[in-house]
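Notebook, p. 212. Picked up where the previous page left off. The plan for this session was modest: take the two constructs that came back from the sequencing core last week, fold each one, and keep the raw output in the notebook itself so nobody has to go hunting through shared drives later. Recording the first one now, exactly as returned: residue sequence, then the structure token string.
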Amino acid sequence: MKNMIPFLIAIICFILVILEGTLSLINVSLFADDWMIVSHFMFLFLIYVTIYFEKITTFYAIALSIIFSLIVDIVYTDVIGVYVFAYTLVLYIIRVFMKVLQSNFLIAMLMTVFGVITTDILIFFLYNIIQIHQLSWEFYWHNRLIPSGVWNLIAGLFIYIAFAKRLQKWSFIKFERSD
């Protein structure tokens, strides 16, 4: 079991990448027509991997971020590297924050909000720099950032409930238990 844990985390990331694409195809008629809701399920899971699974000397979340955000870039976007850069940079920043913060529910939710908002803004600015889209800041703020932030916070709560304790247990099994 000890050696299988990183592969289980990778399989969960893969399933969440597929789920992101599947849910993006579903037209959400409950919301306003001009809202653009972007799911970051895999990224949310990797935030919790960073908070609850990682040790000081391991970089599983960063490695998985590079691999699976490259898949997101190849499959779902036109520009390769934007999600790789944004996800990896923000996960590294969260990792640095977690060196001085305690791992609890409140900090996990604050890191979720920080991670999703920072990632989305970073992706927005990168797409504006390379001129993929020409959205105004006001339109983006009102129609994408806030709806996506709320959607991903709700999804983050579900992912937290499903995986936080399990990741702590897997961390204990992988790094502290002597078999």
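Okay, moving on. Second construct, recorded in the same format:
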Amino acid sequence: MKPHIGKRVAVIAKSVEKSAPELAQELSTAERNIYNYYKKEDWTVHQLWDFSVALGHNFFSEINPPIKPTKDLAFEETAAEYERRASISFQVEYPMSKAQDLGEFIKQLHVLANKMGLKVV
């Protein structure tokens, strides 16, 4: 079953005792827009990001669709193809006050990677 994002956000807002007027002020929008968001089942990533920051709750961690792979891709890749690939993982630590800056950082990282012929996933 597909989650109703608006209802979930409303529950978290209530649990952290943040009212619609407070959220509206923090998100620079009208109070009626907050109530309209609560009614929406589908949200954009940007909207969910803003509410995650405002409520101090990572809603993205709750989105986990039950997807079953149709085939095992690991065995379709030959050893030679695997050897030609390399990757690196890293973690970015940031204060919650800089969460919006993190989004801009990731956008710029993608732009720079594309210019260099690299792929950021």
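Notes on construct two before I forget. The two ends are 27 Å apart (CA to CA).
Flagging for discussion at group meeting.
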